[in-house]
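Hey all, quick one. A colleague (J.T.) asked me to put the fe (ii) ion job into the tracker so the inputs and the structure tokens live in one place instead of scattered across chat threads. No bug as far as I know, just bookkeeping. Sequence used:
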Amino acid sequence: MNSAGLPDVSPYDALLVLSFGGPEKPDDVVPFLENVTRGRGIPRERLAQVGEHYFLFGGKSPINDQNRALIAALEKDFADHGIDLPVYFGNRNWDPYLADTLAEMTAAGVRRAAVFTTSAYSSWSSCRQYRENLADAVAEVPGAPVLDRLRQYYNHPGFLEPAVDAVLASLAELPGGGDAARLVFVTHSIPTEMNDTSGSEDPAGQPRPAYVTQHRSAVDEVARRVREATGRAHRHDLVYCSRSGAPSTPWLEPDVNDHLEELATDGVAQVVMVPIGFVSDHMEVIYDLDTEAMATASRLGIQAVRAATAGVDERFVAMVRELVLERAAAERGESPERPAVGSMPAGPDRCGVGCCPNPKGARPALCGADS
Ligand SMILES: CC1=C(CCC(=O)O)c2cc3nc(cc4[nH]c(cc5[nH]c(cc1n2)c(C)c5CCC(=O)O)c(CCC(=O)O)c4C)C(CCC(=O)O)=C3C
Ligand SMILES: [Fe+2]
């Protein structure tokens, strides 16, 4: 609390929500995909396919609107809690681009901002690449504010509690209350090599392989709480979607569709798909799960329901506020509580040395113990 009895956000004078970005209209789709895949060696056929996913939804990704809704909810939550902190929005791959937002923040006199990324887990794609984006943007904008990326939140109760309720709601939608339903937790596949190097060897960092270890912690905790609530032990699995890259490069498996085939063979009749790797219903969720995996389930005669993502659940929104206040207190030299549930402790405020290296070679990155 500050002298007026309100939560103390110093040393911060802004919050930046940093996300992936997505196309807003059909003409944006190809330039967006070019932004995403610049220098990444994604085969042309894969890009054409992913372009079709966007065109199926009118050439517009839901992700930017979802982030604007999250920001509106945060502004309201801050106001309700007497917190006077402007919230800015910047993306890696589409308008509003991070560097433009940083220029706007600089012009508005922002000196130091907390940064919330819309990605809960550690890997190059979901963690360090955002830190590289921050370094690039700061290099482009003279006088840019100091930026503190908030810790990974895959094990924060504000992220997992909405997931538990979402699973319970989905079970209730299945005939018979889903009493024999399998819980199929789904996240974004990444190259196995990117998983192996996710996290760091620095004892103060996230233990390797952070990406899968963090997911297992989150998944087991949600399944445990569902069991507590229903009194039934639902079997559960962690599987993957949205594989990309060259077919010769190994990525995390099994793919959700292959897994459903296997479940059907084993006689599983009901499934709840839980998009535990994603914070909102963006393209991976509405295409890869709701369209493709749902069609697979229906072809196999499996009754399937997809659980909701955190979105603008008030606990998730409150989590962002709590993370800002926690980090602000830590930067003031206090020792705030660091809520964490599951098998892993709260992650560090700064990524460990060598955390989640870029597979194409080292680049400058902010917000690490070594930056
Ligand atoms: C771990 C992870 C997350 C989750 C964490 C986070 O949220 O950050 C994520 C999120 C997202 N990924 C997204 C879109 C895309 N990702 C691609 C490609 C890739 N993703 C990767 C990983 C991840 N991606 C990887 C290793 C590649 C291969 C290329 C490379 O090595 O860099 C491609 C290129 C085409 C393709 O190859 O699929 C697209 C279009 C969107 C926007 C959705 C929308 O528009 O609604 C979102 C939120
Ligand atoms: Fe992706």
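Adding what we noticed when we looked at it: Residues 14-153+312-331 form a domain with the Rossmann fold fold (CATH 3.40.50.1400). The CA atoms of residues 90 and 98 lie 4 Å apart.
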